[in-house]
């Protein structure tokens, strides 16, 4: 199921080449088939709780490429596939004639596959993988019109913010694995008490919440979402309704059994959710661009969902599930409506659109039906969601009253925006637009009409939807059976209805005074001046300046200092752990040496002293070769003639090559060194040698594990057909490593040769110039 969209994405450009604008209809078969396939699991999931499948991925690390289909993932998967089907059809008509439509459809399918994999992943590593894929594919979609700077900036901003959250998710997943001892979410969900009692609970909570907040655009990470409107409208509709931004909501719902039920969980989610709800609602009222208005309401709706998850009660979780479905249906429909308006009139400015009702009747009908669900009027699934969330706060204590007031205010402001989007462009006297308005084609209308009608149908069939979708989803989140009580009831004596009436009153007042409210908010916005978006630009500018300064500091081009830093860090890396962890070895007793062993020792010491006191470069090179000769003789004495032969060959080649290269530098000269450099380099050299010596003593003081050497001895002839074990290791067992080393040496040799030839050409050019000057002077 999660793989099919990726396979279709590979084929999308080829299908577009032959099918043209009809490729949207053809490729929509893939998500439609996924929708029907997942639909078959409704009854098994409702009866058994979950369906699992998978295959071994990295068995040595207990990693499986596993999938879980329970009530929660089923609801999300149906929404993603269903909405995705209609949006692919819509994309074919919206981008008709675009030369890169095939590439766009491929990105959309990959985006869909990433989101489907995310919501069905049962393995933490798989979850992180698909999470990052949603960030990458959304980057490609937001920046699809890459010729515009605004699109490129929005894509980079979304990638940076959500990518940072992805890193937090990865770290949180690793810590959660360490605490729970399992990578499978289905196994971890039953260990909530263990995780909450762990000292690692707070870092796990903060990391996962950071990931969810960046993905689902919670304050203060909300600023990337409105800028993502630079993407084509089909992307906006899909991203805001069923994918990407809902990933954070899914993560919070999925981890509620593990992390929920604590004071910090409720406090952080409710406070940030409430702040995001109000912030997004007010931000929507400040806009005149229809897409921006809807984008800001998405921020508010995501805050509302996070708030409900934070409350954590059965009614609150049930309300979150219902609201997720309601929001997906009406938000996708309204975005597609706005796309049709923009496509057929040439503008999205709500102040320039009037009287489209008669010229675009089907678009108008879809807008009204979707707007009714956004307002939360009876017969719509939006009404059910609003009733559920108010029922969750019917306890009456002070905290619940405060949260209830926030919900009424936020929902009322959202209702006002919904009324504005559904009414203002269609009523009144028609105002001329850049393009003469006309109704969209079947591919443009199929999505908004079907989705808006589904918003009504789901409200009318509330009991069925509650039984097969909402109750299993809430059961998966809460960890115990939840019986569906969802039904469409309008009771005039119910407090919940009067709370809805208060919400509608706020919405109508907002709609009537929209222009005044917008003017007031814009004056306040201009007075403040600073925004989170500008803060992001400042942070990125500071990061780039810091990177440039760091680069200049560390990459100064002085090879000598590079080597100094390298060896100092090597000494610290070796010595500090041994000193701090008490791992220093005891000095061994000096062994009794034979006369020939003393001879080799004296040869090595003589070569070392000669190297340090060498009067010329040639003597230094030969002295260095003496050290290698002594090492080779040690190998020979201790029964490794093949290794000794290899060492002899390496030393001979090294001396010859160095001598040949150094002939260009006048071998009869000696490099002068300042006393300070001599002391510094000598100290580092002694420290590095001592660190390596101590490390070798630690290694040899432990028990000798001969398994690897025994393996080489037993298999070098039988498998590799070689009696020289060293050569067999280099050529067969470490063949790729040896090839890499040879490639490095070859590349370095070619670079040196090129530099020498360039120097020779430079000297020739200087001599020619000098001769020319002499002739001119003569």
From TrEMBL:
<dbReference type="GO" id="GO:0006811">
    <property type="term" value="P:monoatomic ion transport"/>
</dbReference>
<feature type="domain" description="MrpA C-terminal/MbhE">
    <location>
        <begin position="679"/>
        <end position="761"/>
    </location>
</feature>
<feature type="transmembrane region" description="Helical">
    <location>
        <begin position="401"/>
        <end position="423"/>
    </location>
</feature>
<keyword id="KW-1003">Cell membrane</keyword>
<dbReference type="InterPro" id="IPR025383">
    <property type="entry name" value="MrpA_C/MbhD"/>
</dbReference>
<feature type="transmembrane region" description="Helical">
    <location>
        <begin position="259"/>
        <end position="282"/>
    </location>
</feature>
<feature type="domain" description="NADH-Ubiquinone oxidoreductase (complex I) chain 5 N-terminal">
    <location>
        <begin position="58"/>
        <end position="104"/>
    </location>
</feature>
<keyword id="KW-1133">Transmembrane helix</keyword>
<keyword id="KW-0406">Ion transport</keyword>
<keyword id="KW-0813">Transport</keyword>
<keyword id="KW-0812">Transmembrane</keyword>
<feature type="transmembrane region" description="Helical">
    <location>
        <begin position="495"/>
        <end position="514"/>
    </location>
</feature>
<dbReference type="Pfam" id="PF00361">
    <property type="entry name" value="Proton_antipo_M"/>
</dbReference>
<dbReference type="GO" id="GO:0015297">
    <property type="term" value="F:antiporter activity"/>
</dbReference>
<dbReference type="InterPro" id="IPR050616">
    <property type="entry name" value="CPA3_Na-H_Antiporter_A"/>
</dbReference>
<dbReference type="Pfam" id="PF00662">
    <property type="entry name" value="Proton_antipo_N"/>
</dbReference>
<dbReference type="InterPro" id="IPR001516">
    <property type="entry name" value="Proton_antipo_N"/>
</dbReference>
<feature type="transmembrane region" description="Helical">
    <location>
        <begin position="644"/>
        <end position="663"/>
    </location>
</feature>
<feature type="transmembrane region" description="Helical">
    <location>
        <begin position="618"/>
        <end position="638"/>
    </location>
</feature>
<keyword id="KW-0050">Antiport</keyword>
<feature type="transmembrane region" description="Helical">
    <location>
        <begin position="127"/>
        <end position="144"/>
    </location>
</feature>
<dbReference type="Pfam" id="PF13244">
    <property type="entry name" value="MbhD"/>
</dbReference>
<feature type="transmembrane region" description="Helical">
    <location>
        <begin position="25"/>
        <end position="47"/>
    </location>
</feature>
<feature type="transmembrane region" description="Helical">
    <location>
        <begin position="294"/>
        <end position="313"/>
    </location>
</feature>
<feature type="transmembrane region" description="Helical">
    <location>
        <begin position="738"/>
        <end position="756"/>
    </location>
</feature>
<feature type="transmembrane region" description="Helical">
    <location>
        <begin position="362"/>
        <end position="381"/>
    </location>
</feature>
<dbReference type="Pfam" id="PF20501">
    <property type="entry name" value="MbhE"/>
</dbReference>
<feature type="transmembrane region" description="Helical">
    <location>
        <begin position="595"/>
        <end position="613"/>
    </location>
</feature>
<feature type="transmembrane region" description="Helical">
    <location>
        <begin position="104"/>
        <end position="121"/>
    </location>
</feature>
<feature type="transmembrane region" description="Helical">
    <location>
        <begin position="67"/>
        <end position="92"/>
    </location>
</feature>
<feature type="domain" description="NADH:quinone oxidoreductase/Mrp antiporter transmembrane">
    <location>
        <begin position="121"/>
        <end position="406"/>
    </location>
</feature>
<protein>
    <submittedName>
        <fullName>Putative monovalent cation/H+ antiporter subunit A</fullName>
    </submittedName>
</protein>
<dbReference type="GO" id="GO:0005886">
    <property type="term" value="C:plasma membrane"/>
</dbReference>
<dbReference type="InterPro" id="IPR046806">
    <property type="entry name" value="MrpA_C/MbhE"/>
</dbReference>
<feature type="domain" description="MrpA C-terminal/MbhD">
    <location>
        <begin position="603"/>
        <end position="666"/>
    </location>
</feature>
<feature type="transmembrane region" description="Helical">
    <location>
        <begin position="319"/>
        <end position="341"/>
    </location>
</feature>
<feature type="transmembrane region" description="Helical">
    <location>
        <begin position="561"/>
        <end position="583"/>
    </location>
</feature>
<feature type="transmembrane region" description="Helical">
    <location>
        <begin position="444"/>
        <end position="475"/>
    </location>
</feature>
<keyword id="KW-0472">Membrane</keyword>
<dbReference type="InterPro" id="IPR001750">
    <property type="entry name" value="ND/Mrp_TM"/>
</dbReference>
<feature type="transmembrane region" description="Helical">
    <location>
        <begin position="237"/>
        <end position="253"/>
    </location>
</feature>
<feature type="transmembrane region" description="Helical">
    <location>
        <begin position="684"/>
        <end position="704"/>
    </location>
</feature>
